[in-house]
TrEMBL record:
Residues 1-25 form the signal peptide. GO terms for molecular function: transmembrane transporter activity. It comes from Blastococcus tunisiensis. This is Osmoprotectant transport system substrate-binding protein. PROSITE patterns: PROKAR_LIPOPROTEIN (PS51257). Keywords: Signal. It holds the Pfam family OpuAC. InterPro entries: ABC_Gly_betaine_transp_sub-bd. The keyword Signal applies. GO terms for cellular component: ATP-binding cassette (ABC) transporter complex. Residues 33-296 form the ABC-type glycine betaine transport system substrate-binding domain.
Length: 299
């Protein structure tokens, strides 16, 4: 994704949010509700529903805006008072907020401290991180792994010039996707195809139109499709604990109930929960909101 001029970005954000808004009546004043926004992939939409439901249960007004866009759109929206709450992933959020940071801390606590200092000056409060974690993973079919005797990313190096890679459209620009694979592993693929969804990535792997594809480590399809993640043996991916971020002004307006509800959710959420939530939507056919309500025991 290329960066857009600030004025145009603001217009795009407002149009997107107006089109996507769902929840209480559309006439609700933006200052009278807590506006949650999700990224343009399914797991994040599920997570946003989980945290939004906690805030509803605390008796606070909520709207949810799904699929607003990539991090290049949503992160500025949080800082520019277009949305109020974003649920992110610790390592990626820290790298995006501090792209010139010389050495990313290895521990979640270290990354949380850097992210909190960085976004605190931009009017955003970084709340407690959850135990739940989801990293980028790179998958092949089990048949491909057996044929070529590969189980680690570094073992793809001699094969990559003959392979097709599939990932989200922003992958060529993301340091934890293709640029990171090239820099850390020396992986250069013969062809790169943009995948519209993770489901499409699995289908392309099974059809043989790609041989390597990006899938998150909590993707439920890993348990049911003949695909496997290669070990990140050189440690490209940082820790990616789920972490909610809230505009400071909204915390001041709604008080401690908002922070308490979000922090309590993070204290409960595990990686196993995240896998099950993904399974409920990806395989069982529930909507993100239905899966979240079932997780909370209200669906």
């Amino acid at each position: 994704m290329r960066h857009r001029p600030a004025a145009l970005l603001g217009v795009v954000l407002l149009l997107l949010l107006a089109a996507c808004e769902r929840g209480p009546a559309a006439t609700t004043s933006p200052t009278g509700t807590i506006r949650f926004a999700s990224y343009d992939f399914q797991e994040n939409q599920i997570l946003v529903e989980v945290y939004a439901e906690a805030v509803r249960r605390a008796g606070l007004p909520v709207t949810v805006q799904h699929g607003v866009g990539t991090r290049e759109v949503v992160a500025p929206a949080l800082q520019q008072d277009v949305v109020d709450v974003v649920v992110d992933y610790l390592g990626t959020a820290t790298m995006f907020a501090r792209p010139a940071f010389p050495d990313l801390p290895e521990t979640p606590e270290g990354m949380h401290a850097v992210l909190s200092r960085t976004l605190g000056g931009r009017g955003v409060l970084v709340l407690d991180a959850a135990r739940a974690e989801d990293q980028n993973g790179f998958a092949v079919t089990t048949a491909f792994a057996a044929e070529h005797d590969v189980g680690r990313l570094s073992e793809l190096v001699p094969l990559a010039p003959e392979l097709a890679f599939g990932g989200p459209p922003e992958c060529p620009d993301r340091p934890l996707c293709l640029p990171g694979l090239a820099e850390v592993y020396g992986l250069e693929f013969a062809e790169v195809l943009a995948m519209p969804s993770r489901a499409a990535t699995v289908e392309a792997l099974l059809a043989g139109s790609i041989q390597v594809g990006l899938l998150e480590t909590t993707d439920a399809r890993l348990a049911v499709a003949p695909v496997m993640l290669l070990v990140d043996d050189l440690g490209l991916q940082p820790r990616e604990n789920v972490v909610p971020m809230v505009r400071t002004e909204v915390v001041d307006r709604f008080g401690p109930r908002l922070v308490e509800a979000l922090d309590a959710t993070s204290a409960l959420l595990t990686t196993g929960d995240l896998v099950q939530l993904n399974r409920a939507v990806e395989l069982d056919g529930l909507s993100p909101e239905e899966a979240a309500r079932r997780w909370w025991g209200t669906g």
